[in-house]
Specification:
mainly alpha, 265 residues, binds fe (ii) ion, Hypothetical protein af1432
Length: 265
């Protein structure tokens, strides 16, 4: 058993298990509404989420078919990982579900950009990197423009995650925010985002024989990206992922699962 593996057993985190409803809200976790029964969530935000996922799926079809990093699948994988980590942290089903729905649309700005930008052969140059980063601001704009007349905590949560899912606590993220300038939900989304990106091999990584199983990815994160992530949330995410890896949880085939089923409709 390697080092990454054995550490995971000790890292079972239920950091927020004993927090009250009020404490969770104070800590920035979205426990002040319940997406699954809230009227505005069900009548306004849910149809919007479904629409954005359909747009992502259509957009993926315009991209290089050789790329295995499809954004429709990524949206579900990221949302599921956020939900499972929230449960691992002891945040409860309501926070986990609210985080799930907000994360589904974290990359809604991507289809605003030319599809070729995502599958460049080799390392993108500074200009191409800057263009890719614009998906964050474009996503915020799209969401804000659609719901500019609404005040709702889901709107605040979604905008936070859309805007800050590429932040790093050491200031090396998109906007250079550090530590407590980044909310806990955004810190969680950033960990999941980073991990999921690393599970999709680039051709040069395959050529040099990189491994892409969960323990290898954690080794890579801990070697190259030390200090990027909130340690408690990272530990819970890692415990959840390694548990999944150990139990060899089958990955759901997105083709066999309709969005409506996945959304719990
Ligand atoms: Fe993103
Ligand atoms: Fe993403």
């Amino acid at each position: 058993m390697n080092q990454v593996f054995s550490n995971s057993a000790k890292n079972q985190q239920s950091t927020f298990n004993n927090c009250s409803h009020e404490q969770l809200i104070q800590l920035g976790w979205p426990d002040d509404f319940d997406f699954e029964i809230d009227e505005l969530c069900q009548t306004l935000f849910l149809p919007f989420i479904e629409e954005q996922l359909d747009i992502l799926r259509e957009y993926d079809k315009k991209r290089n078919p050789l790329s295995d990093y499809m954004f429709y699948q990524h949206a579900y994988d990221a949302a599921k990982a956020v939900r499972d980590t929230a449960l691992e942290l002891g945040l409860g089903q309501r926070v986990a579900n609210n985080m799930y729905y907000a994360t589904l649309i974290h990359d809604l700005g991507k289809p605003e950009l030319p599809p070729e930008i995502w599958d460049i052969d080799g390392t993108p140059n500074a200009e191409q990197k800057a263009l890719k980063r614009k998906h964050v601001d474009l996503g915020v704009k799209k969401f804000e423009n659609t719901f500019n007349y609404i005040n709702h905590p889901f709107k605040d949560l979604a905008i936070d995650i859309i805007k800050h899912h590429h932040e790093a606590v050491n200031g090396q993220g998109h906007y250079g925010l550090t530590g407590d300038e980044i909310s806990r939900p955004a810190k969680l989304a950033a960990i999941v985002e980073h991990y999921d990106g690393l599970t999709h091999p680039r051709p040069h990584q395959i050529k040099r024989g990189d491994k892409f199983d969960a323990p290898s990815i954690f080794e890579k994160i801990e070697t190259r990206y030390k200090g990027h992530f909130d340690q408690d949330i990272y530990a819970a995410f890692k415990a959840m992922k390694l548990n999944e890896f150990n139990n060899n949880t089958p990955v759901l085939d997105i083709e066999e699962e309709t969005p409506s089923e996945e959304l719990g409709l």
